[in-house]
Write a structure and sequence with these properties.
about 450 residues; formyl-coa transferase, domain 3; 6-stranded parallel β-sheet; 3-stranded antiparallel β-sheet; 19 helices; 13 strands; CoA-Trfase_III_dom3_sf
Length: about 450
Amino acid sequence: MRLWTRPVALKTPCVRTLEPYHLRQQALSTAIDANTQNLPLAGLRILDLSRVLAGPFCTQILGDYGASVLKIEQPHLGDETRSWRAPKEAQMWKDDACNMSLYFSAVNRNKRSMTLNLKSPAGVEIAKRLARESDVLIHNFLPGRAETMGLGYEELKKDNKRLIYTSISGYGTNGPNRSRPGYDAIALAESGLLHVTGEKGGPPTKPGVAIADMCTGLHAHGAILAALAQRQSTGLGTKIEGSLFETGLNLLINVGVNALNLDTNGAPEERRRGQRWGLEHPSLVPYGGFKTQDGKTIFIAANNDRQWKILCERINLAHLLQDIRFSTNDGRLKCRHEINQSVQEAIKKRTKDQWFQQFENSGLPYGVINDVVEALESPQSTARDMVIDVSDFEASRDGNLKLIAPAVKFANAPMGVRLNPPELGQHTAEVLSELGYSAVEIKGLRQSGAI
């Protein structure tokens, strides 16, 4: 797939100029992979200088939607997630696939990989040339680092006024913490999210996946699409900034707004500062997990008076509907322990399957707490094609790899794996050739350590 247009060479071999933008666009339109033509972002060019999770998760979404994503990695090392293997995972990879992992594969499909040494002048110059040809650039350098390398927004927009420049960091580009590296769990800690996560009365608990990283990637992908829409009318790109810390604060939603406002109403201090509720909800009862006769846990959420009535009728607790204390959500909150105990005693009398039959088509929100395998192999996951089977993955011993499919779908635009998660630097020579470098020049760049 050749999505990077080839500049015109001048007489001096190492100096190149660019074709006019409209000519590059015409050339690009003929180079789009046939597999992307029906996808919404076909033809969009992403230069991905990010690593680990937030940025790569963002660019994988854009790649799934049809964009051409070029991932820039450090020579010989690459994205550090290439080495983040689970225990005993090594046995699934070929001996020479030392730079591949399931973690890396999870967020780097539909991308090409190019190695560039951004500490070398030649590597930076190549990155600048790629930026001139890109619609979007995304990085997660520490604030100020890109500017030091000559890859800051003000520098790059001189040659590409349409560039949408996206910066992801731990804390943003100003403030006392701007220079601190960003890590998911630390951002969750400092944004208050760990304080409200865990069992009631227990210590703070980290979520099972990197929520701050992934939600930052989601915010960034949405902001990029908004900037692209803006560019349609202005003809100009923009700079986008996001951070794990700001994402964490944003995710506080009602808990955060309560903290900002409840102090004026005489609320208890611990409630204002946030509490851990485990599977329960601070504002709804009954809401949480209840054990069944066969040891499963059904999550039930009776969010309003109508659902409370349905629940009581379906689990043979209709007599509770006559108790005026339970007739409103405010009343049920005051009787949280009593209601939860009554619901638990009822649920324990039948199996999970029996309760599912009882609740079916009732209008009551319910579901079983699955483990990860149960969730991915569930009939609903299968019906929605949420697992992608890759049968030509060269890095694995049996040639197979399973990936989680995109979370959203477009009508008449089937998404899949157009490009397998790439080997480190797999497309370096290809991209340089598209930029107009000769085989001799590429060899020289390798020898100098620039790629």
